[in-house]
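Posted in: Structural Biology > Protein-Ligand Complexes

Title: Requesting predicted complex, pyridoxal-5'-phosphate in pocket

I'd be grateful if someone could produce the 3D structure tokens for the following input. Sequence and ligand are given below.
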Amino acid sequence: MSDLIKELEREYVEKHPGSKKLYERALRCFASGVTHDARYVKPFPIYMVKADGTRKWDVDGNDYVDYVMGHGTLLFGYNDERLTAALKEASAYAHMGSCTELEIEWAEMVKKLVPCARDGLVRACACGGEAIEMATRLARIYTGKDRVVIHEGCYHGKWELINVGRSGPPYGLCNVRGIPKAVRDLVTILPYNNPDLLRKVFAKGDVACIILQGNAPYTKDYIKAIRELTTEYGVVFILDEVVSGFRYAAGGAQEYYGVTPDIAVLGKIVGGGAPIGAICGDPEIMKYHGFRDGDDYWNRFVRIRVGGTWNAQPLSISAGLEAMRIIDRERDKIYPRLYEICDRLTRYLEEAAETSGIDVSAAGVPPERPMVGIGPRFGSGASPLANYVYYLVLANSGVHPFGGSRFIPCFKYTKEDLERTGEAIHRSFEALRKGNLVPPKKS
Ligand SMILES: Cc1ncc(COP(=O)(O)O)c(C=O)c1O
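-- Reply #1 --
Done. Output follows.
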């Protein structure tokens, strides 16, 4: 290991003695010491104790400009007083396991903001992955077909069927142990942005649905082609807006791209920072959750019979409703500022690459204006340790990225937050140059 890395690790260990100790304890509780893959970082994760606005504080008293934002749930930053008031109010009666007016108001706001829900129906559940599972089953009943099409590397949650395409290459073979072959055989994993291939797959006639990850690098033309081809072949178009929803725009990726899917899957922001998943869209597809009085055949053999302890529990519904109300009222302020922040972060990466002269570019999705997963893409020939150095410098400089390298922003950063971030990026690229971990930019 190079002296540079040793020095950065020494600084990290010195700054985070409390986290180091906690990680040693955590190793005796959790596999690899963590409860989420994205929190697994070397030499050990930083243990946080509180958060407010755009900042988090760790057990050693260090503060960070935060770019995890509750895995993207917190568009307004931490501790937004309007959302905490909504949570507090609902906590008095969470969870009655009953119908509430609140859930109707929440669904009405979803219908107002999300284009595919406007004339449709809505259903809430516990998390995004569960919502994907519900949407897929509805699509299968609606079409009478079983095959599901997804894209290489896309993440749609933990459910086995849609987890098949997560890792690769080779996609469909990495990290699929424990997923039966019978399940894997029903999934087709496609590369991005190839409508000809998609037509060939649809033409076989066995596809129930295609699931797109709203926050993935599709071209606008491809998304338009998907809308046309799904209509032509009677395939259900499911847009996973768990991340892109209320983030790309008030109406999510479907508003941003101007393409309306049949069903949207929601999560994260729609629960205002509390656990949630939801589906919304075409009532002809959503109707299979419904009862039919006096129709024994429908009720016993056609409809989906499921429960869900956490369906529409008041904490998430109350905070999510408040979040959507704010978005509805303040969208003209929120989105221009969010886009400005995202552009600034992208520019910091580009400027730092320019100054240090190393072969690295800014990446994120959507590619034309990164808003999620903003971070460096190192050119070929970069050391596998480049990302590690990037993380160490950022963390040592008081910036906390998601998964050790990416930014998921809220719209509240101050000038000081952004300046600290810009300086940390510059410092890290300089370290990468000095350590010869990324080759010089080719002229
Ligand atoms: C695009 C996307 N879809 C689905 C999910 C799953 O959501 P949840 O973790 O709420 O199950 C995630 C989680 O991060 C996600 O990023």
